[in-house]
Amino acid sequence: MTKIGFLACETTVPSSGERRGDAFEHDLMIAALEPAFAEQGLQLHVIDWEAPIEAFDGIALAMLGTAWNYQDKSDQFIAKLDALSASGITVCNAPEVVRWNATKTYLRDLAQRGAHTIPTEWRSDVTTADALAAMERFGCDKMVVKRQVGAGALDQILLSRGDMPPSDWHYGHAAMLQPFLPAIAEEGELSFIFIDGALSHALRKRPAAGDYRIQSLYGGTESMHEPGTAEIEAASAIIAALPFPAPLYARIDMLRAVDGRLTIMEAELIEPYLYPEQGPDLGRRLALAVAKRLSQ
């Protein structure tokens, strides 16, 4: 059988003594992929991405999987992907895709290519005065501040005009500032999973009561969503706007703007969770796509 690497990290691999609170998502992905891959003659091997290069001997293709600590070691992560690629291993998604997607300024690129995006300001750091000035420009009373390099709502904060930090506060990271969209707490976020550019499934993610973050670590919940034609077209337009051919996998996270249009929150192309619970055909689709790439 052809060996396929599924890159994990020290807190998602089952052998870890202290797994992340959302490591169960790693287990769900493996359970969905292993039997489907086996049917295509593919054998899945979970490997910590920080393992020595020798641990990848015999691997034909490496998926980035649950390498969920990459943002804290992004230079080392990309260097490892380059090394794997140089050794003849097909890396999915490719290192050049990761470089483009690792910094959220890719949203600016997508906007220039016609994607509908949330108004955003980009800063090397953010002070209280910066945040208040941005609220004035956005015409909003609530604003979200996110790291330009980050995942899973890491260090993300919600600022309110009536409850601002002290005047000497600063964020401490290169940041993006966006007006808070109330749809996140009302309709929720819609995620569209694409395999080789074709829609696999969609889901709706809602935050816990009193929160705005939709990740499971913060109590967020997910449910299946049957997208309408306009929603599929909106998500597919993001795939079409990417500056490279459709990657092996992509998760397009979208939110409804105040004008009623779906707008992109994130194009997750590195190590997104692909929600197999809401997409029972995900394993088969991904196995077929991997087999196709290896045959080319």
The average pLDDT value, as a whole number, equals 93
What string, H for helix and E for strand, traces the elements in order? EHEEHEHHEHEEEHEEEHEEH
Structural class: alpha+beta
Helix percentage range = 25-40%
What is the subunit organization of this protein? Answer: single chain
What overall geometry do the principal axes of the alpha carbons give?
A: globular
**Proportion of strand residues:** 25-35%
Give the strand order of the largest sheet, numbering strands 1, 2, ... along the chain. Answer: 11-10-9-12-13
Low-confidence segments? none
DSSP summary: helix tally? 8
- Determine Rg (CA atoms, Å): 19 Å
**CA-to-CA gap between the ends?**
17 Å
CATH class categorisation of the largest domain: Alpha Beta
Reported for the largest beta sheet, the result is: 5 strands, antiparallel
Number of strands: 13
Q: Domain count, please report it.
A: 3
CATH level 3 topology of the largest domain: Rossmann fold
CATH architecture of the largest domain: 3-Layer(aba) Sandwich
